[in-house]
Amino acid sequence: MTTETRVARRARLMGPNVPTFYAEPVHLVRGLGAEVWDAGGRGYIDCYNNVPHVGHCHPRVVDAMARQSALLNTHTRYLHDGVLEYIEALTARLGHGISQAIMVCTGSEANDIALRMAQAVTGKTGIIATDNTYHGNTSAVSVLSTRRPPIGGYPAHVRLVPAPEALHVPDGGVRFAADVARAIAELKAAGHGFSGLMLCPYFANEGFPVMAPGFLGETALVVKAAGGLLIADEVQPGFGRLGSHFWGHDWIGIAPDVVTVGKPMANGYPVGAVLARPDVMAAFRAAFGYFNTFGGNPVAAAAALAVLQVIDDEGLVENAALVGAHCLERMAALRHPLLADVRGKGLFFGAEFVLDAEMTPASAFVTELVERMKGKGILMGKIGRHGNILKMRPPMVMSVAQADRVMDALEAVLAETPMP
Ligand code: PMP
């Protein structure tokens, strides 16, 4: 079957407008470590995927899932030690009094619950997020996401504050905190009250702007003084990706009331969780109970536990620090007239391109770079309000040698791509 036929078949079976990467979508059939192969046998370094966190098809995760699948898979209405062992292992890595979890299947579900936790604790509905984010696809969280505006407009209990942008706000978070304070006042004045602020502590979907630890200090004070919950969406920076810390919120230096996790948790098996202090959990359980048929099932728990063990046993947080620093060093040596900034932490990094001194985003140019990188066997993404930031977020097992192949390709592509 040709790519064209396959694309047509997808449209026939899945409907129109199903997102794919690349002008000619890639048809992957196999993966191992930080590499994947297409149906024609062509290999790529996967610089995009944070889901296969410990590497595509890691044998220990595959084995843990296979064994548990062959033994039993049920749900949390029956007693099973797997989910308990996992929650113990996961919460042992969290501070701030967070010691309990609800297991779910996606980051969207986790954030959906986090919103209801904030409502249960405060008795209010007003919620704040940034104006260039994505927190998931349920009805409740999709209205915090600015990729597609909701039909009928944004609900009145939602306030979206301007996202920090790397090239524009080197102010240490002062403006962001003031914007949050203003949004809280508006929500209170409108009668919704304030339940919480949800944000990614690395502002991953916003384009991971340059921030130093402390950036959110004033914001956290504002949120807590107003009685709201601080919800850290760790779907992207969590599980050691930033190299220096296991969690984005510990790197930036805030104490969240609720932490949500997903994507990298179980290396591709659909697992997410909401982590909270016992007082927050008690308020939620009293208001809503909650059951999730697939969340925390024995296979999910086995896969997720194996991921934590591999992170430790293979020193993957240290690897993220080492390989990430190497990539950043190589990117800092790149010279190109449109290159405005290179930045990142651990294995989450990128480069921002602009057309002129007015900082006009070089969006089409970055799209072209991503396409040409694919041509050189490297998969990566783009991010930011204008899609002018290259986004690299490879599996945590990427080696220095693989990183060098990525950087060599980037150097070549920058030299070859015509200027707009
Ligand atoms: N939060 C953030 C920050 C995300 O980037 C995403 C997905 N890209 C989600 C939540 C939603 O996760 P899922 O797709 O697993 O529902």
Mean pLDDT: 96
What CATH architecture label of the largest domain applies?
3-Layer(aba) Sandwich
Could you please say which CATH topology of the largest domain applies here? Aspartate Aminotransferase, domain 2
Order of helices and strands: HEEEHHEHEHEHEHEHEEHHHEEHEEEH
Strand content: 15-25%
* End-to-end gap: 36 Å
Which descriptor suits the 3D outline? globular
Compute the number of strand runs.
15
Write the layout of secondary structure elements.
Elements: H1 3-14, E1 28-32, E2 35-38, E3 43-46, H2 59-71, H3 81-91, E4 100-104, H4 107-122, E5 127-130, H5 139-142, E6 158-161, H6 174-189, E7 196-199, H7 217-225, E8 229-233, H8 248-252, E9 258-261, E10 272-276, H9 278-288, H10 298-313, H11 316-332, E11 339-345, E12 348-353, H12 363-375, E13 378-379, E14 381-383, E15 389-392, H13 400-416
Parallel strand pairs: 3-13, 5-6, 5-7, 7-8, 8-9
Antiparallel strand pairs: 1-2, 2-3, 4-10, 9-10, 11-12, 12-15, 14-15
Helix pairs in contact: 2-10, 3-10, 4-9, 6-7, 11-13
The structure holds 4'-deoxy-4'-aminopyridoxal-5'-phosphate (PMP).
